[in-house]
Specification:
The chain has about 400 residues and is an alpha/beta fold. It folds into two domains: about 270 residues, 3-Layer(aba) Sandwich (Aminopeptidase), CATH 3.40.630.10; about 130 residues, Alpha-Beta Plaits. It has ten helices and 16 strands. The strands form four sheets. It has a six-stranded mixed beta sheet. It has a four-stranded antiparallel beta sheet with strand order 10-11-9-12, with helices on one face. Helix 5 runs antiparallel to helix 6. It binds zinc ion. Zinc ion binds next to loops.
Length: about 400
């Protein structure tokens, strides 16, 4: 086993030092924006793996234009189902439309000590580096199976991986751990927040704007509701509960979109608010939602005194669970060893959601650890430091050693 190497000791890295660079460049060349088919990158990747003799399987979306890929390297004793690790990442990227790019986003380019391109950080470098170690592993004896899981439509709500996980469980796979390579700067992340997204719809009562007592103004009611969400948010900022390991140490509530009204001289009938709760494990999103709903309900008697058909309704649009893995768990210890970081100071928690929560929910202990930083994700001129790519290569090679000796 290699000795841990602290990040501060990383030597400066040249493009020629990076064995994974051609594979990363290949993956970047597929413009696999979530709204489009990801089949070209999946086809290429499946061909690459099958040429090495690895069995692959797919799960598709309803259109058949998007697919997840699951591939298994069996253990030396033939075991494929029980134990082992999953290396997981998404193949889709966010759009580049309207962003001022200085290079072609789908042609990865090294400039100085950085690699530029859409997805270099979020998150094609990890998946492509995992492909690099596959032929190296095939020359050795694996003590446990290793799985690759590549998904579609992560960027639009972690949609694809849900089908992959259903199929993984249905086929009887019981991996002992999963490492999702979203950008954490190669920090071992043991938890992230969950997210509940809602749409609240106010149905008011239209009238001429000169006759305000005869109407129910949906825009104004919605604004009162949003102001209440903001007061709940302020209470969380001020009073917690706090988990200081998170970058944002408290649960947050945020209204992102509001639509209402048609003309200044009409008291608006409808107004919709889309909003979210991003919670850590010390807050229940259900309890916070109940608090918001109780406030909305308190507005109803005055509304309905004017017009009985007025209402405020709420729809839960999406749920991404949070997750928390014990920093002393086997998978966390393995990642600390391979990343060369100290588990006492090194465990991170992040506010952004990932597919990790869904693997965790399926009973697979999961860690998020990948190259690059979330601040560069989704940006024009998305970049990653070459040293992060080198760190990722070293991490996955050490992991390969562990799969072979343990
Ligand atoms: Zn991502």
């Amino acid at each position: 086993m290699n000795a841990p190497l602290p990040a501060s000791a990383l030597p400066s890295v040249q493009a020629s030092d990076l064995a994974a660079l051609p594979l990363i460049e290949k993956w970047i060349s597929f413009a696999s924006v979530s709204r489009d088919s990801n089949l070209p990158i999946i086809d290429w990747t499946q061909n690459y793996l099958e040429a090495l003799g690895i069995e692959c399987s797919r799960t598709y979306d309803d259109s058949g234009l998007k697919a997840n890929l699951w591939a298994t390297l069996p253990a030396d004793n033939g075991e494929t189902k029980i134990g082992g690790l999953v290396l997981s990442g998404h193949t889709d990227v966010v759009p580049v439309d309207g962003q001022p790019w200085d290079t072609d986003p789908f042609v990865a380019q090294v400039i100085g000590d950085r690699l530029y391109g859409r997805g270099v950080t979020d998150m094609k470098s990890y998946g492509a580096t995992a492909l690099l170690i596959v032929p190296e592993l095939l020359k050795r004896k694996l003590k446990r199976p290793l799985h690759l899981a590549f998904s579609y439509d992560e960027e639009v709500g972690c949609i694809g991986v849900r089908r992959l996980i259903v199929e993984m469980l249905a086929q009887g796979f019981k991996p002992a751990g999963c490492i999702v390579g979203e950008p954490t700067g190669m920090q071992v992340v043991v938890a992230h927040k969950g997210k509940h997204a809602y749409k609240t719809s106010v149905r008011g009562f239209e009238a001429h704007s000169s006759l305000t007592p005869q109407g129910v103004n949906a825009v104004e009611i919605a604004c009162e509701f949003v102001a209440h969400l903001k007061s709940m948010h302020r209470a969380l900022v001020q009073d917690g509960p706090f988990d200081p390991i998170y970058d944002v140490p408290h649960t947050t509530i945020h209204a992102g979109v509001i639509h209402g009204g048609t003309a200044l001289n009409i008291i608006p009938r409808d107004c919709d608010v889309t909003w979210e709760i991003r919670h850590h494990h010390m807050n229940s999103p259900e309890a916070l939602f109940a608090q918001a709903k109780a406030f909305a309900d308190s507005l109803l008697p005055a509304m309905q005194a004017v017009a009985a058909e007025t209402a405020i309704t709420h729809k839960l649009n999406s749920v991404l669970p949070g997750f928390a893995t014990d920093a002393d768990s086997e998978i966390a210890r393995l990642c600390f060893t391979c990343a060369g970081s100290d588990r006492n100071s090194g465990a991170g928690k992040v506010s952004f959601g990932t597919e990790a929560a869904l693997f965790h929910q399926a009973g697979v202990p999961t860690i998020v650890c990948g190259p690059g930083h979330i601040a560069q994700a989704h940006q024009p001129n998305e970049w990653i430091e070459l040293s992060q790519l080198a760190w990722c290569e070293r991490f996955l090679r050490r992991l390969a050693d562990q799969v072979c000796v343990n």
